[in-house]
User: Fold these one by one.
Assistant:
Number 1:
Amino acid sequence: MSKKTKIVLTVVGVVAGLGFLHLWQNVGFENLGIGGKKAAEAKKFRVGFLPVT
Amino acid sequence: MNLVGKGFYEPVRFSAFPEMKESLVSGYLDATFMIVPLALALREGGVPVKIVYLGHRDGTALMVHKESNIHSFKDLKGKKIAIPNRYSNQHLIIYKGFKDNGLSTQDATLLEMPPPDMPAALAAKAVDAVIAGEPLMAKTELDGYGRVLYQAKDLWPNFISCVLVAPQRTIDEHPEWLQGLVDGIAKSGKWLEASMEHRMQTAGAVGPSYYNQEPRLLRYVLSTPPDRVTYANLMLAKDDFKRIEELAAESGILKKPLIFEEYTDTRFSEKTAGATAYNWDGPKEADVR
């Protein structure tokens, strides 16, 4: 593998990694339908209350 | 079972009802415990929510400063009274108490105040009386400056304050989750009522976690007197709500009469008939963090 090819692959890898990180942190895979079942399983049933009877 | 939201049901604590209302309307909450007239007002305003169960009965007290000369409703004429919200059953108790004594709420100054702020306001004598759910009223007693003028049960037997309210979205899409919650409340209530030991165990567990209050205060609330707050009969009953509807309409809180069958969904409540207490040894240290 030539030096040029290595550099191109490294750049592509970094860009793909950053893209993956961006999707995970800012968009949320559940919004894209990726891993939807797992995300649905993690949903909690939120119940509000005031600390008075 | 756990007590701090490690499981499927996640408790979300609020310090005032307006924020809770916004969270319900925005869809953040899947269900919430809420004061009855506020739930009715939401329905009246077209918000698709329904009352599905009760949270407890009684559990409200009207407190005055122990040095005051207020000993009856008539003595509250011309005084400042803090209420949790215009849309609260505590407001309705004050309305009814004045009416029963030939007075009206126009004869006093009613101030809306978040319940957690009430003890300090009474201690500083910024108001003459406060009324809200426990344990905040008992706190004024334990801290040495509050005196019970009336317990809600003395003025309004089987008083209802908080109810479980669910958006129609939850009812339609996840009825099994809601039924699980209602069943849990019913069984917990039966368990609490089974013995004073259970009440004391609960006070020790939920004080630091859910309520952020001293266990000593909750032990006092759940025992002095033992029927200060009750959890045995939490099923929806039309007659209980009829009285609230009438007072809310009469006092101007609601603009028009509401129909019980439209603002409640009794199916979840009906399935708790014959519910028995949890077979549970009580909260463990690990359950409460």
Number 2:
Amino acid sequence: MARLGRRLGLRLVFRSFLIQGSWNYRTMQGAGLGFSLIPYLSRLHRGKRDALNESLGRHSGFFNANPYLSTVAISAVARMENEGTDPEEIERFKRALVSPLGSLGDRLVWARWRPLCSLLGLLLFGLGAPWWVASGVFVVLYNAIPLWLRVWGLRLGWRRGRDVGRALMASPLRRLPDRLTIPLAIIGGALLPPVALALGGASSADPILVIGVALAFVVLGYWRPALMGRLAALGLLVGSLVFVVLENMVW
Amino acid sequence: MTLDTTSLLSLALLGGVLGLDTVSCLQAMVSRPLVAAPIAGYLLGDPMAGMSAGVLLELVSLNQLPIGANKTWDTAPASIAAAAVVAHSSGGAASLVISVGFGVLVGWIGSWTVHLMRHWTARLVAVDESQRPLAASSLSARHLTAMTVDFARAAGLTLTALLVAAPLYSGFESSDAAAGVAASLLVVICAGLALGSDVRMMAKGRTVVIAFTAGLLASAVLSLWLV
């Protein structure tokens, strides 16, 4: 098997940061995948412009994945191209990868890791940390996993090639989201009192009453998450309009 | 009060750069309200005001997951607009409600501009089903054009929001105590609803409720002791 090389690997990882640059409803990340593969395909088809253009055309069709796991597809496709795999088989392989890469990454990053880091940043601020500590901890902690996923994904895809789907299924990443559930809930609970007291600080109400009111609405939000999430945003929107009107007409 | 040209342009530039982070480039989450709002506040000389708007905006936007073709709020322009409004206010819960409410509106409008841009991008980059050959330079140019348009969209939206918000910069001057209490109550209610919704959207079940309660009790004891 040919080596990918550190420098080329870094270029592929770098381009994966831009894979969603032309995200659209028709091909989704398709053009981004083609863009990400340019360094590798240019080397593979050096001096053969027609072959390069033909392969770039093929890889700019439909594709989608969680962006942090896109390197799995980039390197696996690169390896299959290197092995001279039939283009139709590569196309079937890409389409088969869309679902596992999407569900694995979305469950891990969007549904667990990002909210966990975000709630932790909010908690730090609620407990009195300076704003730059809360924001900084969120950014640094959050990016540790996506950055690791990109590098890990590149190595896995290159090493396993067309068998990468099986490797993903056996990966410990599949169990990680469940393990993050308890910390997420604990931090969410711990966040309520400091945030309620900080945001409700203008009122001179009893702190226990403020926390109690917030908790009652947390229960409501937990009971009907989609509806109550929208109601929270709508409440702020309508509330802001009411205050602006009152400010100009009454007070 | 109005923003000077330098502040307007620097915030619009920030909106463009952070707007790229939302989907097009990096996705390091510096576009989240928890980061974008205090940075905007810092540029305006009041990061803590920006952070207060960022905290509430983060809570109400956290349950929007950028999965597939989901339309989610454009949080970078929303955070910057909210931070600009609250940084110019006289402080207080009513100013917070006005700023975050305006941020919600900007974020929602931003999601529609993204929606329109994605349709346009489809025509720009889509290769038809015959998968015709495509030169590397042409593909790169189309891809980078789409990113440039996204940058211009986010920067333009931020600039427009800052200009439209100018009447709000005078802030909420009322010293009416009832208004302050009503605004505080509204903020606590909305934060509670958002937090409950956020936790349930990410995880559910008896274990989650027990863990949430344990965290709540420990933190409540600590918070009340500190108060």
Number 3:
Amino acid sequence: MKILVIEDEAALSKSIITYLGQENYLCEVAPNINTAVEKIDSYDYDCILLDISLPDGNGLSVLKILKEDHKTDGVIIISAKDSIDDKIAGLQLGADDYIPKPFHLSELSARIAAVIRRRRFNGDNILVFHEITIDTLAKTVTANNQKVDLTKTEYDLLLYFTINKNRVLSKTAIAEHLSGENADVYDNYDFIYAHIKNMKKKLTAVGCNDYLKSIYGMGYKFEY
Amino acid sequence: MLKSLDENINHQKNWIEKKLKTTNPDNFTSFENSILVRPSNTSKTFDSLYSRPVFIPDDNEIVMHRILVSNTLVNGKPYEIRIQKSMIEDEDLLNSILLLQLGLVVLLLTGLMVINLQLSKKLWKPFNDIVSKLKVYRVDSDDDYQFMPTNIEEFKNLGNSIKELTKRNQKLYKTQKEFTENASHELQTPIAVMQGKVELLMQTSPISQEQAELIEEISLAGNKMQRLNRTLLLLTKIENNQFPNTEKLFVNNKVQKLLNQYEEPAQQKNLQWEILLNNEIEITANPILIDILIGNILSNAIRHSENGYLISVKTVQQSLVIANYGKKKLNEKDLFQRFKKQSENTNSIGLGLEMSQKICDLYHFKIQYHFDKSQHIFTIIFN
């Protein structure tokens, strides 16, 4: 799957490419609008990551060009501005998602997966990880042909782990993914233990292997 | 007055005496009945001048008269000349003169006053204009001060000095504000880079426990930095009034939505709720800012409550009251100040209440804190 990263900060785009490259995404970088427009004209991308403030103009103009050309590439706006106006303008221009800088790479990866899933309607809504099958349309999980009854949070957690499989996910990243903007209501991130414990219990009850590993208190890793 | 009247009478008498010598006194007739000449029975010549009230039948009133009775010898025969003159005419004259004078003086004085008043009003107009504009002066407003044009050198100087002063202040304020804004804004990207690199570092292997702990701490610090930065940016935006869109909102709706959002963290601490939203409060404000305002107070209540305690959320008249149990009173003076943290919680960044205060300032709401029956009570008065 091809992804275009339109970002002028080289260090940041390198991080994104490194992280996403390990997930079988083919990434390309455009450090300014000119290069971005050239690339968009020549190729189709599954997802475009678009920074708003670029050296040669406002990133939103790329969105306008995409719309004029009737391109169906998925677009996620990444912006340091964290401005509601940009968010609204971007979403109105047809962006699929908006993620303010700074973000966790695992969160970005989850959002990209969601955008790509939504863009493809041809049965791609089934995610398989060994014996675990996740239907992202019906939001159901089956393992070993048995339905696993997960709560919404547990389902989110499993989806997040599956998309970021074989990665160490920090507690902060997990907590923020689960609680969104409410993360600072918690004095600590202990609450994720409870959800992880319950999710694990329900999966092992239907005979799943325990894929989830705790990494030295730093975070968790979903691996086989 | 009296003197001139007497003189006048004497003149008349002298003239009559002269006349009498040339004509026959018995034939003397006066065209004025106030002059009377008749034969006298005393041959003594004398003049007597006195004032006496005389009844005037024509006017049917008694009027003070000045009377001259003079006995004189004409051709050896004594005659009495009697001249009477009403004094009232002179009094009238006197009165009217006095009245006229007085009227003139009053007219002059009032005229002077009016002119004075008008003049000073006109003269001080530029000054008052400056004063009234200074009264509403705000260092954070972008208005260019345009004072009334004037020809008075002093006021012109004053106006110019003040204009320069406000311009200097505005510029200084702007640079300072821009610094916070730019600093926070420019920090976003390096923080994002750092967080990305830390995340990539986590993925490397092998990682020892020692390294893992270090990475975890870097990650937490980065996370806090990010939150701090984001909040500072938001604060600057509120100060810059970059949330101009307002709409009609119901406070109860907002509170209910936030309570749903915070259900999970509240459950985590097993908190009890007492919710009495009987009063409907309608406000016109930016929905995002109201979310932040109420959300901050609610999340504070959740965060600073101990497990199993009660949080009460009420609407009383035009205010929202949120109370949670606590051990000791917070320092009210520092409560709404930037970075004046009053909890030992290192996760807190100390900007939440300042932000709430700023939002309240923006919409002229009031936020109050008091401690009663070991409860921290925050009241937001929407008015």
Number 4:
Amino acid sequence: MMELVCPAGTPAALRTAVDAGADSVYLGFRDETNARNFPGLNFSPEELGEGIAYAGRQKRQVFVAINTFPRVGAEHLWQRAVDTAADLGATAVILADIGLIDYAARRHPSLRLHLSVQASASHVAAIRFYHDAFGIRRVVLPRVLTVADIAALNAQLPIETEVFAFGGMCPMAEGRCSMSSYVTGHSPNTSGVCSPASHVSYTRRGMELVSLLAGSTINRFRIDEPAGYPTLCKGRFKVGDRASYLFEEPTSLNAADMLGELKAAGVTALKIEGRQRGRAYIGAVVSSFRTLIDAMESGRAPPPEIVGELRRLAEGQRSTAGAYGKSWR
Amino acid sequence: MSARLSLGPVFFNWAPEAWRDFYFRVADEAPVDAVYVGEVVCAKRSPFLAPLLESVVDRLRNAGKQVILSSLALIGNEREAAAMVEATGSEDFPVEINDIGLIPATAERPFHLGPFINVYNESTLSYLAKRGACRVCLPPELPASSIVGMAKNAPVELEVVAFGRLPLAISARCFHARSEDLHKDGCQFVCGRDPNGITVQTLDDEPFLVINGMQTLSYTCCNLIDEIDTLAAAGIGRFRLLPLAIDMVAVAQVFRDRLDGRLSAEDALGRLHMLSNGLIFSNGFLHGKEGRRFLPSGA
């Protein structure tokens, strides 16, 4: 049975995800140790303890993402986050930094370690490095691989793979991108944010709405168009005279049509992105995927209304199979 | 001892002969003691350089330079992985590893770590030193506080990128091809037209980023000429210059003269402005600010 791994940015979202059929919920602490360090989001240690208890009563698991790169002089903050997750009984921690993984493996030998997508381990030897050195049990695969690549990896790997199935997608190798800090001073690796809201502004210019990040134009929209959030790599830019979505269109990943292929490729778990999302969204996406997985596992066709619902929920109502299809490259 | 200079690998798709002649001139004239060679960005380019590699390496070695083979930054498939393992496993070269998967299983043979490996703190540095890293070029995103913190009791030699367009991101997707409506598999090597990468502008014509195949670079040119003496005093023994299609030999000479005290910071900056063909300088990452900014020394 494929495992469904769902995001929770708040205790209420955790309960919603569990009630909607998540097998596992992943979350982070309310600080810079996780890659979704947004205002008003995430968990205190007390809330984590309550969340683990709530999930445990329904035989579900909680993973704690501690997946930014510890800062020199403050490594103890990240180490303490690992200790707290372990002490409160989290099923696994999701880590990216080699030094922190080494710490977790030595200090908590029985704690399950998952390799975050932020570690950008995209081929057998890279994944094997983390497995052999630290006993990593599961790798969250970068969103740059095709289904054929994933199948080839699973044929050679001794560990579980988890892949993104729905939500935001990065066109860049995750954990190796400093575009956001180049423009705003804050990046996923150092601050746990990309294109932070604190640096976003919108300004009206004639019949246009301009979206800006740290004062630079990321996109322009007609007044009657919906204006998207100015995520750096989803903006429109010019090369020569030609404007285009050079890096990536403002679409979100939707692999709902590919669950059978991903299962055949040996994937253990499907991951929904979106710890920053509200309860209504989490509930709708999680229950849709629960239905799709249950249908697939019992050999039934996916209900068309569910497929339509997921298309509707995708960002900007446009979705893509991303790198899972080779034409993306 | 005065700090040393390295020349990083050429990121851009230069014509093979231009690539060779660049290294020949570096061998003959550039005051750098270590030179990194090899294709870092796109595996499709490697076959063009391979036939010239031996002559380049010989020329550099005969000039007394240490030659290090740099690996790809993003290994995209098992075929590329196998080719990289073979290339970096050769006894002929020290290697610079830019993808974690290339770290050997045993620490018998020391290796260098490139700026594409996430070494953000002392624990990671110390672990990778135990695994055999002998020199680490730190990620360009790091602020001085992190660099200086790691330089204290560093178990290996640390290197800091001091000049050039900074690598900001790498993707499985080729943006150069995409900008021409081409697919990566049929890219026609359009990246070869732009020896310093191609500028990406905002819709309001602000120069913003630079693309080079699958790589995204800073539009601004990192320039730490104002800061290298402070970093050297904090224990950084080596600075890396990233090649651009400008007079890199002269750029290296300015850095050498500055490190040796023959040029003031102000004069050195003035010379770099003259050599830079209109490049805009930046040093924001070092100051813990936006990487694209240029802050005066002491800011």
